[in-house]
């Protein structure tokens, strides 16, 4: 039997891009993601009959919320903000970095969504980093598949190794 272990939040990342740029840029990750939440709901209506209640279900509604710390020069944030202002369709991949399909393939289990950013909020406290919160309303319920995750996409914020000699 396979060992069951918890999934850590740090291993679930969201990649995104405006749909209109899918032939021009690779999907990216907003820097300093602190939290994301996927909410799936559906309504149920009840009809009372002489034999008891009968329920009918609506289609599922999927929404994402994402929280990040604002970073200077974050191109993904800039593209997503512009997409929000223009009401553009966006693409979103929810990827589990621990679920590589074949070792060394850079292909990971993921769910792909399309939707719209419906809310964008920036909070700038005097002693804290600027925090961005956004909400995404998803069309449909997503499609499971394998997504390519490059090293650059996985480690958006990372410094390079520096040698001990004088820097050039």
* Arrangement of strands in the largest sheet: 1-6-7-8-5-2
Uncertain spans, ≥5 residues at pLDDT below 50? none
How many angstroms separate the termini? 54 Å
Q: Please outline the major beta sheet.
A: 6 strands, antiparallel
Number of helices: 2
What structural class do the secondary elements suggest? mainly beta
Which descriptor suits the 3D outline?
Answer: globular
Strand content: over 45%
Rg calculated over all Cα atoms? 20 Å
What's the helix-strand series?
A: EEEEEHEEEH
Which percent range fits the helix content? under 10%
Mean pLDDT: 89
Strand segment tally:
8
Could you characterize the architecture of this molecule?
- The structure is a single chain.
- The chain is mainly beta.
- It is built from 2 helices and 8 strands; from the N terminus they run E-E-E-E-E-H-E-E-E-H.
- The protein has helices spanning 75-85, 151-154, and strands at residues 12-18, 33-41, 44-49, 52-57, 61-69, 90-100, 107-123, 131-148.
- Strands 1-6-7-8-5-2 form a 6-stranded antiparallel beta sheet.
- Strand 7 and strand 8 form a beta hairpin.
- The longest helix has 11 residues, at 75-85.
- The N and C termini lie far apart (54 Å).
- The mean pLDDT is 89.
Fill in the keyword field for this structure.
168 residues; mainly beta; six-stranded antiparallel beta sheet; two-stranded antiparallel ribbon; 2 helices; 9% helix
């Amino acid at each position: 039997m396979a060992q069951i272990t918890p999934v850590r939040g740090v291993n679930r990342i969201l990649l995104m891009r405006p749909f209109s740029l899918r032939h021009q840029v690779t999907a990216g990750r907003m820097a300093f993601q602190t939290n994301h939440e996927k909410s799936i709901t559906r309504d149920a209506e009840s009809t009372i009959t002489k034999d008891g209640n009968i329920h009918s279900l609506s289609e599922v509604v999927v929404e994402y919320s994402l929280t990040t710390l604002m970073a200077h020069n974050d191109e993904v944030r800039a593209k997503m903000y512009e997409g929000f202002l223009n009401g553009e369709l966006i693409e979103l991949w929810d990827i589990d970095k621990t679920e590589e399909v074949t070792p060394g393939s850079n292909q990971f289990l993921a769910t792909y969504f399309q939707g719209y950013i419906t809310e964008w909020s920036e909070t700038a406290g005097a002693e804290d980093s600027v925090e961005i919160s956004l909400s995404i309303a998803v069309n449909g319920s997503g499609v499971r598949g394998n997504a390519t995750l490059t090293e650059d996409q996985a480690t958006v914020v990372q410094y390079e190794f520096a040698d001990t000699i004088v820097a050039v």
